[in-house]
Specification:
By secondary structure, the chain is mostly helical. About 45% of the residues lie in helices and about 10% in strands. The N and C termini lie far apart (about 80 Å). It binds one RNA strand of 75 nucleotides through strand 6, strand 7, helix 4, strand 11 and helix 9.
Length: about 450
RNA sequence: GCCCUCAUCGUCUAGCGGCUAGGACGGGGCCCUCUCAAGGCCCAAACAGGGGUUCGAUUCCCCUUGAGGGCGCCA
């Protein structure tokens, strides 16, 4: 039996968390969970002396938000640590000495070079199949300032951490021949490589970069996206369950994920599909969960709408948000959608007004509504519907003759929740006040 | 320039020699309906091109084209 799967995600603390990194992390995590293996988080912080701790926090926060917990790494330990490259100098020195002992290295201009072999290296990639590549020239393994470069520390870490599968972006494929040479020089067995296709930018040429719209995980967190929706979307970008399943929460993804399901070709990012996936999770959320999420989101928004909503009585806030949930694609739409619930000072949409005027006499209908609703039962949508029906019948008109002017008068718009829910949640006092104030 | 990878609707994908080429997002239409969403039904939309192999290619091979990546004392 092969030994336990050990995979790692090895980001550098750059101050942001790229969506491509997130997907690489996800694939590694899914493979570990699928196989009952170990998921290692390793921080590749070899060079910079900048404020790393703040940068590290971005990685930890994003990973936790996405639900990708690590079995070994910063904060949780493990017997192959330390897990930050900046703390592994002794290990690197030891292995660098072994490399030098092979006679394959030489000094030039203060740096240490590794002499390539003249054989092409074979990479038996779990996604690409057999790939052969020969390095073109000797490469630096230790800089003139004494610090080892990425290629060599990456290999030493994977070797000393017992990494069995290297799942990473295809941008590393060409460099893998260097890594294979280093593994061989150290007399170590190769890990299984799996180079996943890249995520291309939605518009324009090239892979997605940190400057592209929607490229950063923290942006989705900030915008109130459902993490599971983002994860679900990302999983489908480059991997397929092979049947037509689409909505799959993390646990199901872990159950179904496997290397053969990973695609070979690059995938273009699609914010529409992400938005749709987010809506699926939004619709499926319990009202309690949704209300809590909206509350948390509003706390981060420094707008008048957000402040008014948060200042409202909790029960009222809950009811308003519950009305919005089945109507929206994302939490960030809530403030605009619910604004008129939290202030009497809302504008009347002119297009909506024109439509209503074109269909009849809104001022008269609103007046009749106000009269009829003064004594109505506001307890349930059904009782309100009956009340409006009675008003319409009394004047020989239809329901919609009243619904549209009424909606305009109490909300200023022609879009929103069910008219009866609208009346019920606003309550008699607000409704009568707004109807009374209305001018066509 | 050299090297590596990839190629099915606009996009994400299913297909692993014989299919009316399936699903999803997006688009269009109809239904539902108090508006808007959601939901249901329907429509348009793809095998990059050229050679082979084969009784038969979307599927296998080659070339072209296109797309992406790598060629740092960055990671």
């Amino acid at each position: 039996m092969p030994s336990q799967v050990r995979v790692r995600f090895a980001p550098s603390p750059t101050g942001y968390f790229h969506i491509g990194s997130a997907r690489t992390a996800l694939f590694n995590w899914l493979y570990a969970r699928h196989t009952g293996g170990v998921f290692i988080l390793r921080i590749e912080d070899t060079d910079q002396a900048r404020n790393q701790d703040a940068f590290l926090q971005v990685i930890y926060d994003s990973m936790r938000w996405l639900g990708l917990d690590w079995d070994e790494g910063p904060g949780v330990g493990g017997k192959f640590g330390p897990y930050r490259q900046s703390e592994r100098g002794d290990i690197y020195r030891e292995y660098l000495d072994r490399l030098k002992a092979t006679g394959r290295t030489y000094e030039k201009e203060g740096a240490t070079y590794f002499r390539i072999s003249d054989e092409p290296q074979v990479i038996d990639d779990a996604i690409r199949g057999r790939v052969e590549r020969k390095e073109e020239k000797d490469f630096v393994i230790v800089r003139s300032d004494g610090s080892p470069v990425f290629h060599v520390v990456n290999v030493i870490d994977d070797l000393t951490m017992g990494v069995t599968h290297v799942i990473r972006g295809e941008d590393h494929l060409s460099n893998t021949s260097k890594h294979v040479e280093l593994f061989k020089a150290l007399g170590a067995p190769l890990p299984i490589y799996a180079h996943v296709p890249l995520i291309l930018k939605q518009n324009g040429p090239g892979k997605m970069s940190k400057r592209d719209q929607g490229a950063l995980v923290e942006e989705y967190q900030r915008r109130g996206f459902f993490a599971e929706a983002l994860v679900n979307f990302l999983a489908l970008l480059g991997w397929s369950p092979k049947d037509d399943s689409e909505k799959m929460p993390l646990a199901e993804l872990a159950r179904r994920f496997d290397l053969p399901g990973i695609n070979q070709s690059n995938a273009r990012f699609d914010d529409k599909k992400l938005a749709h996936m987010n809506m699926l999770y939004l619709l499926a959320a319990t009202p309690e969960d949704f209300v809590n999420r909206v509350g948390a989101y509003l706390l981060t928004q420094n707008t008048p709408e957000a402040k008014r909503a948060l200042a409202a009585p909790p029960d009222y806030f809950r009811e308003v948000v519950a009305l919005a949930q089945p109507k929206l694609k994302g939490i960030e739409e809530v403030p605009a959608y619910t604004a008129y619930f939290f202030t009497d000072d809302f504008a009347i949409d002119e297009k909506a007004r024109a439509k209503v005027i074109a269909k009849g006499d809104p001022a008269a209908r609103v007046r009749e509504l106000a009269e009829g609703l003064a004594q109505a039962d506001f307890a349930t949508d059904a009782s309100l519907e009956q009340a409006v029906q009675a008003i319409a019948a009394a004047h020989g008109l239809t329901l919609s003759d009243y619904v549209h002017p009424g909606r305009l008068a109490v909300s200023g718009t022609n879009v929103g929740p069910s008219f009866y829910s609208l009346l019920r949640v606003l309550g008699r006092d607000r409704v009568l006040a707004r109807l009374g104030k209305f001018k066509a």
